[in-house]
Amino acid sequence: METTPLGFPIETVLVFIGIALAAIFIDLYAHRKDSVVSLKSAVLWSLFWVATALLFGGYLYIHHGQSVASLYITGYVLEKALSVDNLFVMMAIFSWFTVPDAYRHRLLYWGIMGAIVFRAIFVVIGTGLLVLGPWVEMVFALVVAATGVMMLRSGGDDGEIEDYSSHFAYRFAKKLFPSYPKLAGHRFLLNQKELDAELAKPENSDLVGKIGKGMFYATPLFLCVMVIELSDVMFAFDSVPAVIAVSREPLIVYSAMMFAILGLRTLYFVLEAMKQYLVHLEKAIIALLFFIAAKLALNASGHLFGHGYSIDPTISLYIVLGMLALGVLASLIWPAKDEKDSESVS
User: Fold this and answer.
1) Which of 4, 130, 224, 262 gets the highest tally of CB atoms within 10 A of its CB?
2) Strands in the chain per DSSP E
3) Handedness of CA 50, 8, 119, 148 (dihedral sign)
4) What is the spatial distance between Cα 108 and Cα 90, in angstroms, rounded to a whole number?
5) For 133-180, how does the pLDDT look when each residue is reduced to its tens digit (9 = 90+)?
6) Of 83, 46, 5, 113, whose CA–CA distance to 240 is shortest?
């Protein structure tokens, strides 16, 4: 069967696209209204997205063998794990912008759509750069290791809240459009008629004459989603090289990343509820980054010096799952100390 530039038959590419689009349609139809996502609903939808990812993994296993399926599952689990830290950053962004719970799913949708586009660009660039030689893999290893070091150094800053008013995306959005400082439903931009209607409300009388002129006016939701989009570009710098460490096949890399990303909206609400109980999960993610950096360096040095050492895809999957399991287990054994308890002891 004729293969595509992605290294797989057109049938496999079409199955990937079909499963992804069908799942997106089901998700969008089910969450078309602005409402708070309950923990039970978030868990069930997270399981739906895991099942969707495993469905494509099963297709790969049947039609392309265990090795290809293992590479895909490893990439999927790795991207899912790395995304956990990204979701914690999104929690901080939502908190700073005081985004109501009912609108967070909508903002996550647009953030994830942007992530899908950005990841596609980075995957094409990243896999394309590998043809330049094994030194590129060594550079990728340094990038991933540097991310791990930065996470280690910032480990004690969990209580600090970043001021996103100085964020580049925030300042850029305010240059594009005059900003309206209050929420106007779930709208991102207001036209002049809509703005006038908002300013006509008695509670907004203090804003009359204080907003610049423009064709459209940015609401806090627009500013928030701009910060999320740019933040995701930064996340891609470590996640794309990490998944490329698992496989060089663009379809394997992109499908693993896409199915992991598509499930992030509902995973966000699970993590938001469970964050206080998963206090050691970030340590497991940092360990994963160093493992992936070592794997990239091992692959590169193997091509450079021909030592013949490599890590089997199935072993890589076990290591990734094992590290995550240890992070969850450590959180259960050594939970976070209650501030009230520590104060009473002192």
Assistant:
1) 224
2) 189-191, 216-218
3) positive
4) 9
5) 888 888 888 988 888 888 888 765 554 556 788 888 899 999 999 999
6) 83
Query: Per-residue pLDDT tens for 3-27?
Result: 666 668 899 999 999 999 998 888 8
CB 188 within 8 A of CB 225: yes
Q: How far is CA 157 from CA 116, 147, 154, 162, 267, in A?
A: 29, 16, 5, 10, 23
Strands (E), 87-243: 189-191, 216-218
* Cα–Cα distance measured from residue 123 to residue 140, given in angstroms and rounded to the nearest whole number: 13
Q: Tell whether the torsion through CA atoms of 93, 97, 99 and 105 is positive or negative.
A: negative
Q: Specify the pTM.
A: 0.82
Tokens of 214: 């423009």
Cα–Cα distance measured from residue 332 to residue 326, given in angstroms and rounded to the nearest whole number = 10
Q: Rounded distance, CA 85 to CA 152, Å?
A: 12
Residue 290: count other Cβ atoms within 10 Å of its Cβ. 17
**Segments of 187-292 assigned E as strands:** 189-191, 216-218
Reported as a single tens digit per residue, the pLDDT across 281-327 is 888 888 988 998 898 899 889 888 888 788 887 788 888 889 989 99
Pairing of strands 216-218, 189-191: antiparallel
Cβ-Cβ contacts under 8 Å for 306 (sequence gap 6 or more): none
Which residue is associated with the tokens 């602005």?
Answer: 34
